[in-house]
Design goal:
Blueprint (H helix, E strand, L loop, with lengths): L2 H6 L17 H20 L8 E12 H4 L1 E12 L2 E12 L8 E6 L11 H6 L3 E6 H4 L11 H4 L11 H16 L10 E6 L1 H12 L5 E5 L17 H7 L22 H6 L5 E7 L7 H9 L2 H6 L16 E3 L5 E5 L7 H12 L3
Parallel strand pairs: 4-5, 4-6, 6-7, 7-8, 8-10
Antiparallel strand pairs: 1-2, 2-3, 3-5, 9-10
Helix pairs in contact: 7-8
The structure holds beta-D-galactopyranuronic acid.
Beta-D-galactopyranuronic acid binds next to loops.
Length: 360
């Protein structure tokens, strides 16, 4: 099937006319980005907490013989201060000892604090000449309706407010704080900073990249509903499904769109477009129909005109919908539809790393 046939059945808002007036230049799109960000925060994710007045980072422990002494492992505690108040979370890094001239630095928000982990093949990442910082997302705040624990207690004082941050916005805030720290390090290369996350943490990765231009590569793995997939006409998980099971990921205002996708004044390609002209890497999987690889592809291709404004290729693709296996690595965005199920695999990592290394 052709992309245009698929889109002709969906009433998708034009990202180049997000508030009616047609945008024709990159400068105009830059100027409208804050209003799109506001819209997405008001209607979907809630307001990402502000940058703190200051952060401080303390080393808890380190191991210079990590990965056969090829790398140094460090565990840190980050404290974010707002006036007299503060909140904290731990995070980790594994940094190769032989630092290549151009080294991708990943921030991986993960489902575990185990390093290595099935979703973080740490030794391979190091051997590939990359550094990786890891946040275990539930060290920031738990993955449930409890907004009294971790950083949520300070950052979301009134969960009942219509635009209160959901947990995705709070996890995203934590990634930004780790980037604040990375910026102070000698290894920081502004052209080589990547964020990676899988599934709900892929949604978190995309939100972070959309709001933080320090993220040059957003590796959005199997993120699907309310992440990188178009909500209109979506197969698998709908807004109704996700807001019923995971209401705490979003702001309360989002619930009104359950079964009312057509009433959204945006769709998920608005979120992806905020990353332009930086790189979005979308990983999808054939068996991950709950995420909907076809709608993930549609959302990314709908950002083509935005990338074009910046003189960028965006995703290089044909006019057809993807058929597995599909690997599209040649543009300024990346998409793959691989065999297999919902997972952040070594192959996924290797594909993202290869793409990034070719561009730094
Ligand atoms: C599912 C959820 C998806 C996805 C996934 C995950 O249960 O419905 O949106 O985020 O969890 O995070 O593993």
């Amino acid at each position: 099937m052709k992309i245009c046939e698929r889109l002709s059945t969906l009433n998708v808002p034009d990202v180049l006319a997000p508030f009616g007036k047609k945008i024709t230049t990159a400068a105009e799109f830059d100027a409208v980005k804050p209003a799109i960000q506001k819209l997405l925060q008001e209607e979907e994710y809630g307001f990402i907490p502000n940058k703190p007045d200051s952060i401080s980072v303390e080393v808890i422990n380190s191991d210079s013989k990590f990965c056969a002494a090829k790398a140094t492992f460090t565990k840190y505690k980050l404290t974010a201060k707002y006036g007299e108040e503060s909140t904290e979370f731990v995070f980790y890094s594994v940094i190769p000892k032989a630092i290549p001239e151009k080294m991708p630095v990943f921030v991986h928000i993960n489902f575990s604090d185990a390093i290595p982990h099935k979703y973080q093949p740490t030794e391979e990442i190091i051997d590939n000449g990359c550094a990786v910082f890891t946040i275990y997302y539930q060290d920031v705040s738990t993955d449930n309706n409890d907004f009294e624990n971790g950083c949520a207690k300070l950052l979301c004082p009134d969960r009942s407010a219509p635009h209160a941050p959901g947990k995705i916005a709070i996890w995203s805030w934590a990634i930004m704080r780790v980037i604040d720290y990375i910026e102070t390090l000698d290894i920081y290369n502004p052209d080589a900073l990547a964020v990676i996350g899988h599934s709900r943490l892929g949604k978190t990765t995309l939100l972070t990249a959309a709001f933080d231009s320090r993220v040059k590569f957003a590796c959005v793995n199997n993120s699907g509903a309310s992440g990188d997939a178009l909500s209109r006409g979506k197969g698998g998980e709908s807004i109704k499904d996700i807001t019923k099971k995971f209401p705490f990921w979003f702001c309360p205002e989002y619930f009104k769109y359950a079964d009312k996708e057509d009433e959204l004044p945006f769709d998920q390609h608005f979120l992806i477009s905020l990353v332009a002209p930086r790189h979005v890497l979308t990983g999808t999987a054939k068996e991950d129909t709950w995420a909907d690889p076809q709608n993930q592809y549609l959302a990314l291709t709908l950002t083509d005109p935005v990338y074009a404004l910046y003189g960028s290729n965006g995703l290089i693709h044909t006019e057809n919908m993807p058929i597995c296996p599909e690997y599209l690595p040649d543009g300024d965005c990346y998409y793959h539809l691989r065999e297999g199920s919902h997972y952040l695999s070594r192959d996924d990592w290797n594909n993202y790393i290869k793409y990034i290394k070719a561009r730094i």
